[in-house]
Amino acid sequence: MSATSLAQIAVIIPTRDRVGLLRRAISSVLSQSLLPVEIIIVDSSTNQETLDWYQSLPKEQPTGIHFYAMSHPHGSSGYGPSTTRNFGVIKANANYVAFLDDDDEWVDNHHLARAHSLFTEVPDAEVYLSQQEVIEGNNVASPLRGRGIWLENIDLKSLNDGITQEGVFRLNSIKLLSQGNFSHLNCTIVKKSLFTAVNGFDESIRYEEDKDFYCRILNRTDWVYITEQVSSRHYIPIAKSASTSLTEKEKLLFQLQICNKSLSNDLAPTKRYKVEKSNVLKKLTHVLLSEKKTALASSFALTALATRFSFKWAAYAFFLWLRSKF
After folding, report:
1. CA 202/CA 210 separation, integer angstroms
2. Which domain of life is it from (predicted)?
3. Does the residue 167 lie in any domain?
4. Could you tell me if residue 240 is inside a domain?
């Protein structure tokens, strides 16, 4: 099928210094039974390798591939994935945008065709989600599922409010949020007008920025359309990446930022963010104790208690408070 038959969807791929992996991601998009109108690659590196690869592509492509190199101030480490994705969506001409990380790939060749079928049947649909498998150590023969990282353990049938097509469920967005977890961006296709309405990705968040985005778009739409179909393959990073370059404490601080932001913006369901905030604060308490910062750990423990009370944690927080005084 031609690219023009799917004029609604553009694919956004941020990349940085890994052309070999990017080739695999691009190949998985070009293997789709229904092609997107455009593939937008946004490079945040400072070297020439990705640009050289792009310029070596054949002039005639089955779908439009557009390459943008984002320059950044001298001496800086470059832009994060949120900035590059936001830039890519701005450049997109389509009504819907799909996302794919440069080190991952789509494994369902009908992924975009399924989404297009839904958008054709339900023009008001704003969010389409699918499932993902995990690959550890490049062990493609034994993909992992069911670990509860994303949405794979949610009983979609029990939450369903009307099947729009075979294997696709319509869920109330807040009911889905109440189940916990979030959709990886590889599995997320969103209407561009909704993306714009929530101001895209928060560029100050460099870890689980997709979770923050997921919570905000679901708070801005009434219904989510989700399938049990596995659309993508996520390779756990073993080389340096945006996530592996962060310490455990840095990751937790970003998670805390997301929780505080969700609560301050009164996002639903409030109970979810309070539980998550309390859990993050408890983990930070233990990290700070390992750094022998007892007074600061006590402060975080008390904040966790104030966020969500439990007698067991109250006793522990009181113990830490006494310990910090002596």
Report:
1. 9
2. Bacteria
3. yes
4. no
